[in-house]
Design a protein that fits this description.
The structure is a single chain. The protein is of the alpha/beta class and 285 residues long. The chain has one domain. 51% of the residues lie in helices and 11% in strands. It is built from 12 helices and 8 strands. The strands form 2 sheets. It has a 6-stranded mixed sheet with strand order 6-4-7-2-1-8, covered by helices on one side. The protein has a two-stranded antiparallel sheet with strand order 3-5. The two termini are 35 Å apart.
Length: 285
């Protein structure tokens, strides 16, 4: 579940000619690079697009959705477990009803997890767990995702890493979803798992080529029937992050900001919001 927090940004218009997953925004005395991340990559397919190297080399500091070091802390793991369990002693079956429960049980069995072991957990936690298991079976490794790779390099190079939000905030965002939204989130997850391999290959191809139009379409289509979830997980967070990014543009050093690719593209994406505030993001080749 710890690694699964990063998956939130993996799934959900700009010019298809952008051809870069990294955007550069000039401040008065510096440049802020906005990089769209894929949080997990397959073993053997872990190279990053060239624009990442250019942005990383130029940047003196990194900012991510959360400081990746926080994810491994005992405090974060304890909070994740506490928030993931039903506080009132309810069960998953009681929370989502028999029809949904049967679908979840089928997927859990396919992934090698007895449904009985999931009973004490809230639907949002089950959704993350099933997603993590699916991607692990497909050969994806969160330790080789963009953030983990860049984080290891930054530690070696002495570059400071900070987060746009804390692990607590990210966990509370999911735990704070209403019971109905949590059930729909789990529904969406179970539906997505059936085509996870094909869809993720398409997303990765669009990400590597910088095809923002294709990326926006692929990443947001599953949220079309669930705009409330898209707003909570994507656009509301973008609006909270934008002032922080604009403060970075007033500094004297170049900074690389790495967020899930869904946060850059499409309606309400950070690139669009930055343009609306008078900045001129340009694709970094």
């Amino acid at each position: 579940m710890r690694s699964s927090l990063l998956i939130v940004g993996l799934f959900g218009c700009l010019s298809a000619q952008a051809q870069s997953p990294v955007w550069a925004i000039r401040g008065a005395h510096n440049t802020v690079y906005l990089a769209g991340s894929v949080h997990l990559l397959k073993t053997g397919e872990t190279s990053l697009p060239p624009a990442f190297e250019r942005a990383y080399s130029a940047a003196k500091a990194l900012v991510m959705e959360v400081d990746v070091d926080e994810l491994d802390s005992p405090a974060a793991q304890t909070l994740l477990l506490q928030k993931g369990l039903f506080a009132d002693g309810s069960t998953l079956r009681q929370a989502i009803g028999e029809a949904r429960y049967a679908r979840v049980a089928t997927e859990a069995a396919r992934l090698g997890v007895p449904i009985e072991g999931l009973e004490p957990f809230e639907p949002w936690a089950i959704a993350l767990t099933l997603t993590q298991l699916e991607y692990t079976q497909l050969g994806f490794d969160p330790e080789e995702g963009v953030e983990k790779q860049l984080g290891r390099r930054a530690h070696l190079d002495g570059k400071k890493i900070t987060g746009l939000e804390t692990v607590d905030e990210q966990i509370n965002l999911l735990a704070g979803l209403s019971a109905a939204d949590q059930a729909r989130f789990l529904d969406l997850t179970v539906t997505e798992l059936k085509d996870a391999d094909r869809e993720t290959r398409e997303i990765l191809a669009a990400w590597r080529s910088g095809n923002s139009t294709k990326l926006a379409s692929l990443m947001s289509e599953d949220y079309a029937t669930f705009p409330g979830l898209y707003r909570a997980l994507v656009t509301d967070r973008n609006r909270r992050w934008l002032p922080q990014i604009e403060r970075l543009l007033k500094a004297d050093q170049d900074t690389l900001v790495v967020v899930g690719a869904l946060h850059l593209v499409g309606e309400g994406g950070l690139v669009q919001l930055a343009r609306a505030d008078g900045f001129e993001p340009r694709p970094l080749q």
